[in-house]
Amino acid sequence: MGMIHCEYARLAADDFDKARTDPTWALEHIDELAGEWVQMDLPAQEARYFSIGTVWGPLHNVLRVHGEMPVDPVQGGAALGAAEGITPVRYLGPEDVEKAAAFLVGTSFDTLAPLADATRLCDEDVCPDPSEHAAETDAERLAQAYGELAAFYGAAAEAGDAVVLMLN
What we know:
Elements: E1 6-11, H1 13-21, H2 23-40, E2 49-53, H3 56-66, E3 78-83, E4 88-92, H4 94-106, H5 109-112, H6 139-159, E5 162-167
Antiparallel strand pairs: 1-2, 1-5, 3-4, 4-5
């Protein structure tokens, strides 16, 4: 199995409504957003599409161990459609995005860092080979990804956007 990346797309209200009724359109639209992101190389708070790359497993574990997330910003949400990647494409509606943003922005990574467990790198159901994520346990990489994820969700919440989550 190749390296698994966790990717996100922000959808404005009209696009979010359309995505829930037309998953095929949603995936095509998300592909367009991904192409723009690659070309424009925008920072997380300005991007409509974003990836935390392969650091998602250890970061998800730290967030779960903390235990006070009101919603799961890495693998949570409702299914949007059939699995295009490792798991079904999922989404958090605007209310859940606000909850996720409040937690991420309001909780410093320094609070979470002591919870990192190098022996638990990712969820076995989507990552049967944890050794492929060993490099992502570096505290600096986790802190950077966390900061970018907080900025992305913060901007999405401020705009009233939904967020689509994908493991590819």
